[in-house]
């Protein structure tokens, strides 16, 4: 969010605009600062993927002493807990986060990656989607991270109930050089998805996308507006009071990203990713997810990538209240 003093003045002899966003003391948004945020946000996963103490230490120097972290339902405060959460697995197991997309807006970055777990001989064990929001301080050090994984999918892959994907090479998706006005408009459209959902008008979300939109969720690729709308209607029966709220709406070029919260009560039979039917329990769950949307020149979504743990509705980690007895 920008303050009323945004774009107040330019440096003498420079056309660089400066802004002081609310809530980040001393932060001045310059091109140099934004480039540093981009570089730092792109460094965490390569460092982590080394699976070494040196890689872990390289990440620690990029965070504030009081970094606030949320890793798939588990919260921590401080660099020590951050380091503990990111400790490499060992025991003949390797973990890799391979970035597909890095969006940077101001002091915030959103990252989409596969989370790939292999043996030391590169035999694939699991591959799921990892999505993260990173907020940086005035020195471009990480001060807050929200990391969202797909634990239910990972479990189903490990048990063989869902087939593993092929371990293909991962490359960064390009970001088109668009006007600021275009990016502003697609951010508005990205925010419209949850607005429509909360108005019980999920069918309108299909009109925000191309007819052949590619939809990626829960380790599956599908095509078409019906598949997109289904992401917003699949809990209509099992979690009928579900509400979704955007925490962040970010944009860069032809991409927009939302980090959102969804909360509701499991009041009917719920189907897990592996097909298991779970009876209602009357308990409320509060979960985080992220959506990465690529827009075409007409301002319609042609790629919609959702990262969220579908099976969180059966996990005690995400309970808001105790289960009624």
TrEMBL record:
Residues 196-298 form the SnoaL-like domain. Pfam families: SnoaL_2. This is SnoaL-like domain-containing protein. Gene3D superfamilies: 3.10.450.50. It comes from the Eukaryota. It comes from Trichoderma asperellum.
